[in-house]
Amino acid sequence: MHSTPDKKIIREIVTFIKNQENTLRINHPFLAQQNALGLGLLLLSVCGFITAGWLYFNAIIPAWCCIIIAALSASIAHEIEHDLIHHQYFKSNPAMYHFMMFMVWIIRPNTINPWYRKSIHLNHHKTSGTPQDIEERLVGNGIKSHLLRLLVVCDGLLGLIIRSKQFSREIKGYSFFKILNASLPFATIYYLTIYSFLLFHGLNFIVDNTAIVMTHPAWLITLMQWINIAVVVWVAPNFLRSACLNFITSSMHYYGAGYNLLQQTQVLNHWAFVPFQWFCFNFGNTHTIHHFVPNQPFYIRQTISKQVNVLLKNKGVKFNDLASILAANYYKNSENLVNSPKLST
Fold first, then answer.
1. CB 28 within 8 A of CB 286
2. 102, 150, 213, 289: which sits with the fewest CB atoms below 10 Å from its CB?
C-alpha cells in the first residue's frame, strides 16, 4: 500500500514532526525530565480523581461536577497509559514502570489491564484498518450498523459478547476468555456496579409509576447507598470518558484495508467534536501524529499539533471526513474506494 510518492511524503512528515519536537525540547530544557513529567502528570491525574470523589462524598460539590472533574482527570491517565505502552517513562526502572501501569488502570476500571492492552495496541500499529486490529474493532471501528456501534461505544462488555463469534471467525488468535481475564477485577466490579444501579433504579421507577407495591430489605438499601456513591465517583466518570474516547477513536481510524500512514487515520477537529474531545484529551486532533511518530509523549504531541496538522493537510491527510463515519469508516479517495473490503457488522 506504500507507493513511492507516498513513502516520500511519509518521510517528510515524520522528519517534520521530529524536528518540531527537537526544537521544542531545545527551547524548553525541562522537557528532558521525561520520567518526572510523566510521574507528575499521573499523580496530578490521580489526585484530581480522588479529590473530586472526596468533595462529592462530603457534599461540597454536586454529582455532575464530580463526574466532569474525575472524567477529565482519568483522560490524562489514559494518555499516560498510552505513553507507558510505548515505553516513554521509566523504561529502565521496572518497579516504577509497573507502579504507573497499575495506577492508570485502577482509576479507569472499565478498561482491560494495561499489560494486555500493550500487546493489542502494538498490534494496532501493525494491522490498522484490517480485521486483525482487535483494539479498534473492540470500540466500534468498522461497524456499519449505527445502533450496534452506539452500543459498542457505550458498553464494551455487551458489545464484546454480541460480536464474539464474529471475532472468532475473523481475528487470528482471538479468545473471549483472554479478554475477559484481562478485565479482571476492576471491569467486573465496574459492570456489576453499573448494572446493579440501573436495575435497582429502573425497578423503582416502574414501582413508583404503577400500582405495584415493593419493599426493599435494609441490607439492600445500605448496599445501594454505597453503589450510588461508587457510580458518581468511579463509574460515571469513566463511562463518560470511555464513551467519548471510543466514539472519537472509532470514527477517526479508517477500516477495510491495510492502509498506509497517510490513510490510516483522519484528523477530527470539527467544532461538533469539541465536547467529546474534552474527555479524551483532544485525541481526534492529535492521534494522527502518533501514527507517524509513536514514540513521543502525549504532551509533546499536543504542543506541536497546530504546526503539524497544517503539514498533514497539505500532504493529503484527510480532515473531518464525516461521510466515512456514516460509511463504516471506509477510506474513499477521489476516484473510488481503495478496494472493496468486507465491512464489519
1. no
2. 213
